[in-house]
Amino acid sequence: MKRPVILLTGFEPFGGAGSNPSWEAVQQVKADWQEEAALHIACLPVVFAEAAERIDAMITLLEPDIVVATGLAEGRAAMAAEVIAINRIDARIPDNDGMQPRDVPVSAPGPDGLFSTLPVKPMVKAMLEVGVPAGLSYSAGTFVCNSTFYKVVAAQSRHGGMGGFIHVPATPDMVERADCPTMSVEVIATGLHAALMACLRGDRDAPSLETGTIA
Ligand code: PCA
C-alpha cells in the first residue's frame, strides 16, 4: 500500500501578536513524528490571497491523502474540529497585508458552505482520549482561517483526499486578559497528533459518538 501523505499547516502571527501557537504546535508534531505516514508541514501567511494560493499549490504538488490546516482562535478553551467552512469573508481586522475585505465570497461560483471531509467526531474523540480538551465547532469565523479551510476542502476534493481545519486555543504567554482560556503548545501538539492518527486509522464518523460542541 502507498505510504499515506499528510499536509499539516499552521499560521504566522497576526493582529499584533508575537507568536501563533498553531505553527508552534505543528512544528512540535513534526519534531516528534515517528509514524509510517509522510508528514509535510508549512506555515501559511495570514493574507487572504496568499494563504489560499500557497496551500492550493502544495496540494497540487503533494496530492496529500490528508490535509489538516490549523489556526489560532483566541478565547476558545478547547481544540475545535471545525465542521463547516462558509463561503463568506468578513474581516474584523486587516490581514497581514493590510487587506480587510468585508462581506465578499471566498469563491464567487462556489457553494455556500463546504463540510470538512475529515472524520471530525473521531478526531475529537481521539483528542479527548489522550486528555486534550476538544469539541466540534460549527463556525470557523469569517477571517483567513475560514477562507483557507474552504479552499482546502475544495482542493482536496479535486483528487479525492480528505481535508479540514482545527482551531487551537491561545497559549499562556500570549494572553493579557486573566480570564482568557489557554493551552500549552505541548498539549495542543498532543491533540493534533491524536487527531492525525484518527484520520490515518480511517476512523469513521458516527452519529452516536458523543463529542460535545464548542459554541
Ligand atoms: N487565526 C485566524 C487567522 C490565522 C489564525 O491563526 C483565524 O481564525 O481566521
Short characterization:
By secondary structure, the protein is α/β, with parallel strands linked by helices. It has helices at 21-32, 48-62, 120-129, 144-159, 185-201, and strands at residues 5-11, 38-44, 66-72, 79-82, 84-86, 113-115, 134-137, 162-168, 213-214.
Description:
With about 220 residues, the chain is an alpha/beta fold. It has helices at about 20-30, 50-60, 120-130, 145-160, 185-200, and strands at about 5-10, 40-45, 65-70, 80, 85, 115, 135, 160-170, 215. Helix 1 (about 20-30) links the parallel strand 1 (about 5-10) and strand 2 (about 40-45). Helix 1 (about 20-30) crosses helix 5, helix 2 packs parallel to helix 4 and helix 3 (about 120-130) crosses helix 5 (about 185-200). The structure holds pyroglutamic acid.
Low-confidence stretches: none
Strand percentage = 15-25%
Mean pLDDT: 95
Helix/strand/pairing class, anyone?
alpha/beta
Bound molecules: pyroglutamic acid
Secondary structure layout plus pairing:
Blueprint: E1 5-11, H1 21-32, E2 38-44, H2 48-62, E3 66-72, E4 79-82, E5 84-86, E6 113-115, H3 120-129, E7 134-137, H4 144-159, E8 162-168, H5 185-201, E9 213-214
Parallel strand pairs: 1-2, 1-3, 3-8, 4-7, 7-9
Antiparallel strand pairs: 4-8, 5-6
Helix pairs in contact: 1-5, 2-4, 3-5
The structure holds pyroglutamic acid.
Keywords:
single chain, 215 residues, alpha/beta, seven-stranded mixed β-sheet, 5 helices, 9 strands, 33% helix, binds pyroglutamic acid
